[in-house]
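Weekly structure sync - notes
Attendees: PM, LS, DV (DV joined late)
Agenda: review two folding runs queued last week.

Item 1: First target. Sequence and structure tokens pasted below for the record.
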Amino acid sequence: MDAMRTHYRFGSTWIVPSSTEAVRALLEDVRGYGAWWPGVRVVEDVSSATRRAARLEVRAPIGYRIRITIIESLTADDELRVLMRGDLHGWCMWRMVPVRGGTRVAFAQEVEAQSRPLRLASPVFHHMLAAQHERIMQAAETGMRRALGEVPADPA
């Protein structure tokens, strides 16, 4: 199997008109991700006394589910980084930088497909799977803006 076609590298950057402290608090509260990030569900908090961790289920817009465990690996004033295990192995990070009028939020992720269905689909559907990730991140941006009070909630 073509390893390059099962490897993914993603990045997204947004500027939100909120303080870095508010953005950081939102991102550190992994148990709250499902409240603002459509398609992300926290299945179980598996933190220990020394490290935060959680099992997540991420549902792509086309319906497939990815199950991962995220394990905190670095916490700095301007960066949160986690290791990922499960259907994807690798890492992701959030970087928060104060800018005029708010915070620049940068997300980066590098992963390798591990589950059999993802490994089999990746060589053929690599671009489609990457596009699904982009849609998930667009939903994250909208949800983050809403959670931080920038975007009004949808009328129900």
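Item 2: Second target, run right after the first with the same settings.
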Amino acid sequence: MKNWLLIIVVYAASVGPLWAADVLLIESYHKEYGWDKSYIRGLENTLGDDVTLHTFEMDTKRLPKTDYDSQADKAFAMYQQVAPDVVVLGDDNALGYMLPRLQNEDIDIVFLGINANPRRLMAKYSGKARVTGVLERPLFARSMREIGQMLGKDKLIVKIMFDAGTTATIATDHIGKQYQSLKNKLGIDATIENHETFDAWKASVNSSDGYDIIVVGLYQIIRDSNGNVVDPDKVLAWTNQHSAIPLFGFWDFSVGKGQTAGGVVLFGESQGVQAGEYVNRILAGEEASSISVIYGKQGRAIYSGAEFTRWRLNAPNGWRNID
């Protein structure tokens, strides 16, 4: 009987916590944002029933940058109040603002949705905290290759549009480096843009003669003439209505009827699942610092049947209609 009890205890420790656990998720953005909704769903579906997920929204898609530090201070105060077993940091701003505050805490940290190379931050703020996580990279090369083949273009001429937020700036830098090393191999001619204002965004969409497609990256921090953030749905809807050429996307939340037509896209849910798996391993006894930082699982090719019909496009084999 004693042997059986020992086996049960060892097994339970290998698959999850034997006690109720608290996990604090600090979001860079806000819960209504499509990416956050998606990865939170992945986290919640992966964490055990005995895990309570607490959340704090830094709201950096909507608040001015001057407020980021005070938001991070509030997040740290919540960390002290909750005293979680594990902290999850969602996206670049949460990692950049929270790791300096958490570095000397005896805590395991799992990040997700990180576009920047986290090694510098992890080396600079290498205190007691133990850190691992999941990286996010727009699937530029695969997207351009498959779209070029679909359109039958020997040389695809593409405009890639992002806002000017932290994640967008990091993403365009990464894409720009990939483009310079792969442009001849991929057979593309790309213009990569960051825009701060809706007026500038509109002007670019309206001056796309000579391009085959527009790829809409991130568009959640586009501001009006008064400096207020424009509703992202409005930005995407306007772009869909006024573009004279097909739109494609890098993220799943941008694809659909009245949005972009499709793309090889990243899914927040898969990042949440992978981060959740890491949290479960930590709660079962592993330390975050012993778990390797990984790239997120490769994206999926999806399309809107309505938008493909509108642009008279034929979906490649393996692309999934989400309408």
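Discussion on item 2: Residues 4-16 have pLDDT under 50 and may be disordered.
Action: LS to circulate a short write-up before next sync.
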